[in-house]
Structure formats: structure tokens, C-alpha cells
From TrEMBL:
Residues 11-128 form the Gfo/Idh/MocA-like oxidoreductase N-terminal domain. Gene3D superfamilies: Dihydrodipicolinate Reductase, domain 2 (3.30.360.10), NAD(P)-binding Rossmann-like Domain (3.40.50.720). This is Gfo/Idh/MocA family oxidoreductase. Residues 137-246 form the GFO/IDH/MocA-like oxidoreductase domain. SUPFAM superfamilies: Glyceraldehyde-3-phosphate dehydrogenase-like, C-terminal domain, NAD(P)-binding Rossmann-fold domains. GO terms for molecular function: nucleotide binding. PANTHER family: BILIVERDIN REDUCTASE A (PTHR43377).
């Protein structure tokens, strides 16, 4: 279905019934103006489990669900190697979509997906969930208000053990964890003009640790550090400016602003980022208005990430 303004409830499906697809299904049930009508997974038992849990029809393939259901929108939360091709199927059916990160695993996949989305005219939103973290929203307001002066440097860390996944993921830590920081840096500072990386690869050939160095047109330097090696999860970001600094703990949803003479911690009401994200997506679907976080934004983020990986600095 092409974007249009309509008064009825939006009919939504979920493709991929792993743990995060299941979370999408749960959250859709909490949103007004939405009917979760169908789910699909290549593991029919997984689809049945989620379908019965949320009173939705279930299918063993996305093709079957997209063919038989009259859907306004879908969430696509399949394995990375299947994201782009599944999204292209939805675009060809004219169905609005939210596609989980990393959206695509190669430049070729990305170009094919963007072409299909723009040809179809559907609403597209990447699953860049941390943009909807209330602490990141407050950090963005802080930067726009000039609370820490002109930004000079932005640095972030996202680390943790490589999660055990039942299905193979053909990506490294850069596309799994690093992409979160790349889209947040881009959201806060604009698209970087140059990106370089240093990568440590594991026995499977995929990167298990990575550092990205970014430069922005306003002379801001960016640093992203990510790995699957740190036992305890770390997710934080700091912006240093001409008058102070501000840093966010993603997990605790806290923001600390530090100046030379004082520091403060604004009170932030905790929210579930996935709920905020899906509400924003559904609002775009119902209104027909293109979201700020769309296929072009996703392309900018992934272009930067792929460019950085290609411009790897070898460790001697």
C-alpha cells in the first residue's frame, strides 16, 4: 500500500519471530490505531508461537504473508543477510516498512533496496532505535541550545560479548553494534565527510573489534569504539564542546552536562525506545508523511560505515 491518509486502524505484520521480532509484535499490541494481524518466520513453530501469543495469523514465509494479507505496514526483523531482499519484496508489494538494523550488509544490497523503496514510494524507516532513546533526544536538544558551546569532539563506546544466535549472522561487530553509534553520530553532527577504521578480525573472518575515526564538515572529530570482547555491556557517548561536555549512558537513559564551574543531570522520564520508534513509524504510515529518519538517512549512515571499513588502517 502506498502512503496515504486513512481513518481506519493500520493493519500491521511482523516478518521474523526471533526475540526482537517478538518484541515488535508485543509493542504493536500496545499502540492505539494498530491491529497486529499477521506474523511470519521461516521457522513455522516460531511464527505459530508468536501468532498464538498475540492472536495474529501466522505464516512460514514472508512471501506467503505478503501475498495473502492486506497490510498497511510491516516490521522486518530477520537475520542481516535476509533484511534487504525481504524489504525489497515488501516494497514490490507497495507495503510501508520498518527494517531493522543493519538494513543491508553490502553496498549492492543497499543500492537495490533504496531503488526499490523509491520506485514504490512506500514509507521506509530504518530500525535506528537509539535515536528514540530519551537521553539522546535530550543530548540533541543540549547541543542545539549551545549548552556546551561549539562541539569539538564526539566519542562513543558500545561493547559486549558476542551474543549466541541460533541462526548464522554474516556480519561483524561494525554492522551489529558499530552501526548504532554511526547513526547517532550522524543524527547529532550530520554526515561525516571522511571515515577510517582499524579492525580486529576473529577466527571466522568477521571483525570482532573496531575503532572508527570520523571527521565532520564543522571540524568536529568523531571516535567510535566497539567490540564483542568486553564481558560487561558498555553503551555511552560523550560530546566535548568549547564550553563544557555532555555524556549519555544509553542503558540508564541519563545525561550529564559538565561545565567548568558546575555539572548537572537533567531529569529525564524513562521511555521504551522501541515503543517510541514504532509509534513514530505508525504515525508516518497513517499520515502519509515521510519520516525524518528515512531511506536517505539510512543510506548516508551505511555509506559512511562501508566507507570506513573499506578505508581500514592496517594494524602493524
Amino acid at each position: 500500500m502506498h502512503p496515504l491518509v486513512f481513518m481506519r486502524r493500520a493493519k500491521v505484520g511482523v516478518i521474523g519471530c526471533g526475540w526482537f521480532g517478538t518484541a515488535h509484535a508485543r509493542v504493536y499490541r500496545e499502540i492505539g490505531d494498530v491491529d497486529l494481524v499477521a506474523v511470519s518466520d521461516i521457522n513455522l513453530e516460531s511464527a505459530r508461537r508468536v501468532g498464538e501469543m498475540y492472536n495474529a495469523r501466522y505464516y512460514g514465509s514472508p512471501e506467503d504473508m505478503l501475498e495473502k494479507e492486506d497490510l498497511d505496514a510491516v516490521s522486518i526483523a530477520v537475520t542481516p543477510q535476509n533484511l534487504a531482499k525481504t524489504a525489497i519484496l515488501a516494497a514490490e508489494k507497495g507495503i510501508n516498512m520498518l527494517v531493522e538494523k543493519p538494513v543491508a550488509t553490502s553496498k549492492q544490497e543497499l543500492e537495490a533496496l533504496i531503488s526499490a523503496v523509491e520506485k514504490s514510494g512506500v514509507i521506509f524507516m530504518p530500525g535506528f532505535i537509539e535515536i528514540f532513546n530519551p537521553a539522546i533526544e535530550e543530548l540533541r536538544k543540549c547541543l542545539k541550545s549551545g549548552d556546551i558551546g561549539d562541539p569539538l569532539m564526539i566519542s562513543s563506546e558500545r561493547m559486549g560479548r558476542n551474543p549466541k544466535r541460533p541462526l548464522g549472522w554474516n556480519i561483524g561487530v561494525s554492522l551489529d553494534l558499530g552501526i548504532h553509534e554511526m547513526y547517532v553520530h550522524t543524527w547529532l553532527m550530520g554526515q561525516p565527510v571522511a571515515v577510517r577504521s582499524m579492525l580486529r578480525r576473529g577466527e571466522n573472518g568477521y571483525d570482532e573489534a573496531a575503532v572508527f575515526i570520523l571527521s565532520f564538515s564543522n571540524d568536529v572529530i568523531g571516535v567510535i569504539s566497539t567490540n564483542w570482547l568486553t564481558p560487561a555491556g558498555v553503551r555511552r557517548i560523550r560530546v566535548s564542546g568549547s564550553k563544557g561536555s555532555a555524556w549519555v549512558d544509553y542503558l540508564n537513559q541519563t545525561l550529564v552536562i559538565e561545565r567548568s564551574d558546575h555539572s548537572l543531570m537533567p531529569q529525564i522520564r524513562r521511555k521504551e525506545p522501541l515503543l517510541e520508534e514504532l509509534q513514530s513509524f505508525i504515525s508516518s504510515v497513517i499520515s502519509g508523511r515521510k519520516p525524518d529518519i528515512d531511506e536517505r538517512f539510512a543510506k548516508n549512515v551505511l555509506d559512511s560505515l562501508f566507507s570506513g571499513i573499506e578505508r581500514e588502517v592496517e594494524m602493524k
